[in-house]
Predict the structure of Putative NTPase (NACHT family).
Amino acid sequence: MQELAIEGAKDYGKEFFKNSLGKVLHLPEKDVQKEAYGKAMKEFLELFQQQLEMADLEDDQIKNFEKPLKTFIKDDQVKPILGDAFDIDCQILDTLTLAQSWQRLNLSPLPAKFNWEKLGKFYLRKTQEIIQNSEKLRAVFLVKLQNKDSQNIQEIAGVKTDYNLDDYAEGLKKEYGHLKLEFLDTTTYEQIKLWRMFVPQNVRRCKQFIPQLYELPKEVLQELVDRGEITQAELQRKRQEYVNEKLDPVLNIVNSSEYPRTVILGDPGAGKSSLLQYLALNWAEKELSQRVLLPLPLLIELRIYARDKDEKKCKNILEFFHQGNLICHLNQLALDDKLKKGQALVLFDGLDEVFNPQLRQEIVTDIKRFSIQYPQVQIIVTSRWLGYKAEELNHAGFEHFMIQDLDKDQIEDFIKRWHDLAFENRDDKTQKQERLQKAIKESKAIRELAGNPLLLTMMAILNRTQELPRDRSKLYEKASEVLLHQWDFETKEGLIDPELKKYLYNIDLRDKRDILRLVASAMQAGEKGLDANLIYKEELENILTQYLEGTGINKRDASDLTDLIIKQLRYRNFILCSLGGNAFAFVHRTFLEYFCACEFYERFKNRGFPDGITLEELKTKVFGEHYSDPVWKEVLCLLMGMLSAEFPKEVAEELINYLLDMEETYKKISHLFLAADCYGELRNQSIYVELSQRLLDSLQSLTSYRYAGNYFK
């Protein structure tokens, strides 16, 4: 390599410095440029050789790279990139173009462990040393060096944030590599990685996003069509543009240069977050020599970014990566350089989880500003469709796509992958797989639920030990039992925290469900209500301590047990998760909604007692106050399903009739849609003959109202 460095130094050309020296006040003498070029080539080739050695290549194998390297360093596209290291403003080297150039020149394949990012990082550092050690070069770059020193002093004032992409990749794998639902067998669960389980869905483009097109339940719409009370043509007119859009595989869309700005919309649990995590893991799981060829995925969970921004921990997205609550920080100056070159894929996950309208507006503005600041960067945003407003991101050039349910083939693909990974016993695997497939095939309700990736995952877990339930509230109940049962299982196997063994009180499934109901109740009763899937540690500890003391545990033991229970619910049960800053949340909002509905159900069961709630209060205080709030829709629907399963039909009838009796105005007809959704939750609809007819009449009447057409605009 030394001979190659000497030969390379003789081949000095002006292309090397054409970018970096174009920004200085006066050019250094030719011999100074040539000397700097020679030293830079020597450093680059030595660092290149180090990468080959670290990849465990023998000396004779390394020697085979001399000819390809000679071609490489003479390339007109490579020279200016290596020369960019002499630009004092350069934060990171364009290693992506270097790696692509190596492939473009069809040079010898590099070993899998070859790390272009590290080579670029150390080469940049060496060239800065060349400038510092040369009196003539220092004179040329004097002003910029002073600014650089000032910047370094500012960073030293705090802890300097590194730009280590290897650590970032490991952080992504650690944080998102495994499914967030724990299997009963922990050793098996460790093998079930999102990377291997992800089944890409289809999406449909929404040229003009109209949320009202999706609000009517499919069953009610189809019933209206079948009865001839709304024509297929009329229904088609309202949904024509959306339905006529062709289905595209979601990976085709996100990998297409045709859509540099996209919003992926979908139902709760539809796989929006899994999609972004998969895209990030697709980069992190690659070999080092391949990773550099891909854009850097920057995954931002917007609920965490919003909280940091609200608490003044960061001002913008770059600062968030520099110092926010992230798995791994990335230096914002280096990141800015990467973004300006368009070598990143920015993934904003969960806009719907920013519930404060003002803060959500700030986040949307941040995303728009970010897209303008870095026009070459691809950006993907995800959100639930319910409550989403498309106008601003539409105007900013974002295309909207609705993620579709898993189709028959995708469901079968998921089930096969799951059982291949989760079961070692072949006979057991076959029996369980066939049982789940049979349940989905024979039950329309389960088949519809199976299109949702979250619910299908729950079904797969539940299918291990028992037949599937036939309604959604029972599915959530059974799914939560599977997760919470993990603690009981580990207690028997001796895997639980040894600190718990010294306490005589056994925390069972019922205790854990009661605790989570109280946590959900506290969240909905808080200042931000159900808008925030968040509870601070102090309040969570108070809930647990009071509950444990109520069971007869002394105050000291209750306080000690509280920390252990939080630890178990977080690390082992995957029900709660830490958001940092002493804040906790349900892992998935579905569990918040389910346990909140359970709390109202239990309070209605206890009507007549101090903590009970009457039917009148259920109507006016629960349904009456929240019927128009989209955040409450799922809670109210789940609650209706629970009530209809356990109480006389008059309870459900009175609640739905209460919704139908509400005054209808131009802006407020959401009570009708909620009534239809609640009707869909009833266990035995055949006994609600009069209610069914009244509901259908009410929905049919929408088409004749003079404002009905405007509602669907």
Residues 2-158 form one domain.
